[in-house]
Amino acid sequence: MGVLGALIFSSQMVNFPIIYGTSGHFLGGVILGIILGPFAGLIIMIIVLILQCLIFGDGGVLTLGANILNIGIIGTFLSTYIYYGLNKIF
Questions:
Q1: In terms of residue numbers, what domain contains 89?
Q2: Measured by CB atoms within 10 angstroms of the end CB, which terminus of the chain is less buried, N or C?
Q3: pLDDT confidence of 68, banded at 50, 70, 90?
Q4: pTM for the whole thing?
């Protein structure tokens, strides 16, 4: 969990530009959910988001709850169950 958390932490710090001054970045909840399961992936994503918020100011403290909901809970659980469902079909 620690090694994957460090990998996701470092890979989420790489931003790529999108039109009109906004930027996007890699979301690691998919990989964590598939490899470790959705609950362990959620725990790691919450820790990664808190560290990025407090150390680098990435997202900010006021948006931490929204980031945990969107990136952590929805991203990890939804993508994991979509992967499991597609894996059973194909």
A1: 45-90
A2: C
A3: very high
A4: 0.88
Is 37 domain-assigned? Answer: no
Residues facing residue 9 across a β-bridge:
none
Q: How do strand 15-17 and strand 23-25 relate by DSSP bridges?
A: antiparallel
20 is a domain residue: no
Beta pairing partners, 30: none
Query: For residue range 15-62, what is the model confidence (pLDDT) as tens digits?
Result: 888 888 888 888 889 999 999 999 999 999 999 999 999 998 888 899
Asked if residue 32 belongs to a domain, the reply is no
Q: 16-44 as b/e, with b when 16 or more CB fall inside 10 Å?
A: eeeeeeeeeeebbbbbbbbebebebbbbb
Instruction: Let me know the angle formed at the C-alpha of 25 by 21 and 30, rounded to the nearest 5 degrees.
Output: 150
> Which of 29, 20, 11, 22 is closest to 67 using CA atoms?
29
